[in-house]
Sequence to fold (792 residues):
Amino acid sequence: MKKIDETRLKNIVGEHNIKTDPSDLYIYGSDSSVHHAMPWAIVRPETTRQVQDIMRYANQDMIPVTARGGGSGMCGQTVPIQGGIILDMKRMNKILEINLKDVYCRVEPGVVDDDLNLALKPYGVFYPPTPASSRIATIGGEIANNASGVRSVKYGATRDAVLGMQVVLANGDLVHLGARTRVEASGYQLHKLMVGSEGTLGIVVEATLSFVPIPEFRCMGVANFDSLKDAGDAIGSIMAAGAVPSMLELVDSVAIKAVNKTMNLGLKEVAAALIFEADGMVQEAVDYEINKMKAICKQHNGQDIYASYDPKEREKIFMGRKKLFPALSKYDDNLASTALADDMAVPYSKMAEMAEKIHEIADRHHIVMTAYGHCGSGCMHTKILMDTRRKDQWDDAKQAITEVYDYVRSVNGTTSAEHGIGLSKAASFKLEKSDSLTLLASIKKAIDPHNILNPGKLSQAPENWVTATNLRYSVNS
Amino acid sequence: MEKKTKDFKHLEKWQSTLANCIRCGYCFEHCPMFKHTSWESDAPRAKIITAFGLLSGEVEPSESAADKMFSCFFCGRCEAACSSGVPLTEIFIDAKKDLVEMGLKGPGTTSTTELNCARCLICVGSCPHDARFYDGKGIATDPTKCQSCGICLDVCPAGAAKIKNDFGTNSDNLIERAATFLDTHESAKAIIFACNWSYYPELQASLLPESETRDKGYEILVNMCGGRLGAHLLMAPFLHNAWGVMAAVCPDGDCRHDGNLRAKKVIETLRNTFKSIDINPERIQLVQIPAGDKTLFQAEIDTFIDTLNQLGPIR
Ligand SMILES: Cc1cc2nc3c(=O)[nH]c(=O)nc-3n(C[C@H](O)[C@H](O)[C@H](O)COP(=O)(O)OP(=O)(O)OC[C@H]3O[C@@H](n4cnc5c(N)ncnc54)[C@H](O)[C@@H]3O)c2cc1C
Ligand code: SF4
Ligand code: SF4
Ligand code: SF4
Fold:
């Protein structure tokens, strides 16, 4: 392990904002992914100035620096595979301005998504990208991952909501990117380049975000299907018909069974269900969208179709989807729910085929996989349930995800729709972007010549990461 | 990495449960320790990671690792919020048992006894978890039983019972925070003390712009358990011109430490004292809030502030 100058770091952030005890380093060595690696120190800056000073030091001594928000990344984005400093951004947690006249807010990167929405709510507005992890994910982490969520089908992903930002570069310089205006055509849109860069191009220290009014009316509906194909076709038709759902979710039979088995929800065990929602300021407009979606579901043999404005009914409809996570974790005591290939996107018309493919591949490799997700945005989620102690299960899982991704790329889909690449998905990412890898590398080199910002991720990730080594699980050989 | 399993006979049975924690971090916002320090090492997930590391041999059973396992107020909120049904506090207790056998005792948030202990045994009788006992020399705490409710601190007449690692929950700290709020906000009227159950966490880790908080009329301070609401804590805000003080605790039967019953008694006594010195007893109130019932809690606060507005400041 390379030596870091603790005294110098203490002088920058103060004695109480650095940790180097192995028990702390171990904790900060993992996130919500399957990976683990030890950092050398955790440092918590409070000001932009401190971030600049830390970067100057790290750049000079060539020490890797990995920014960390809530540590909810699912692909090992914050796992420091080359060691170095973890820059814990949670102390930069101020909501700086809520500007109703110019319709933007300014925040520090450690602000938690739910906290921002809590602060915006009294003004009747909300920040829409909101991933399912909004109670822990920070704005910095969401920007770095281009996070999105159930309502992104209507309101867009983080990239659509970021107007501008301040970023500290690898050499410690501070740059102001983007603007505080809705549109900008002043040269390269570098703030958009930062979105999704997974901490490899700079440290976001402030962001200017747009927000939208909270809709007056919300109506949610559900339709059951006897075949995955029908459900998939319904999704395609809804989107092609120009309907504007504020949510369009698919859950498959494995997911429904899991929820029934562990939560006793008594959902009808069909091949697939679609949950759809529309929102707006005028009820007639919402009715129009809902009726359109109901009719399309019916055309595609949807059954038990119904929709409601009543918050209690809506909650009931969404319960199965909401309880999916815990249900998968409790599915079987010997099976853990792992995030490996969990958020690919395919064109709408391939949604059904994709779901079927996932089941077929899982069966062949003796693991359990489920298909669900934000189908309105083309995003399919899967979870792999397996016995993490068995090495052969890891090999099976690895083979299965390779096949899933081969399929995704063969239909012009993309490796990640919302969780990012990090380590877990690098193999498929590199194949998908094979003709632009050199371009990516030259951008990285121009901005971070010493390769100190979150090194070893994205196209730099090691080829064979998903093996039984460096996993956060104990694997018997 | 080579993994050596150490002798963790109590923790061992949780091996597959530990792998079931999906590390989502949904437990963060519920934990008063994390909210106080915002270090991930203090969040519930960190303890699950540590327990996992202890079992797999990747974490040495060191004093600092033990300090993490022994720091918990056993509010159980993480457990209730866990996306994967991980029984966190049961795992913590088993980890503590193994660590104690290895000679590691925290203390973390375990209560300890200072030398000025009068050996009156009041704490021994008051501890809801039978954790305090006379060991032949003085009063000791069984660290595997202590759930850091803080009741012994409050009943101890000598001030000898202490929780050293208090994460901002000790009375001195709360009194100071109440005073700062009252002294720096012109519109300040009330302090609301809430246990970690009755107050569903709002802003967990972010700070609002100053313009948003300038006109705040009240401050909510989480004190962990109603059992820790001593008279001196409840009265302190009045010295800084508070118009009233409200305390929120769990409904009857819901408190793991029966701290709500103690709180009821303390507040009843204070209300009688208020009456006797001609101060309207409505200025000090107790409400019981089922876990997570934000709407009820807000309604109770609004009613309380209305009452205070009618009463005006204390002359
Ligand atoms: C249960 C669960 C559900 C999830 N659901 C969704 C979902 O619906 N949609 C979705 O998009 N994602 C989801 N995620 C993934 C994850 O929560 C998001 O990617 C989120 O944006 C990560 O935020 P974070 O603050 O936890 O970032 P971290 O995990 O801490 O970091 C993620 C990346 O951001 C970088 N980073 C963090 N802060 C900064 C900064 N200030 N400057 C530069 N880089 C920075 C890090 O270096 C790292 O590369 C989910 C995760 C979990 C565990
Ligand atoms: S029981 Fe309470 S104090 Fe203990 S880890 Fe869980 S949330 Fe934190
Ligand atoms: S909520 Fe449960 S599953 Fe999620 S990190 Fe906490 S203990 Fe683990
Ligand atoms: S009264 Fe509470 S804090 Fe004191 S020893 Fe008993 S359990 Fe621990």
Observations:
- Chain B has three domains: 11-101, 111-163, 171-310.
- The first strand of chain B starts at residue 111 and ends at 113.
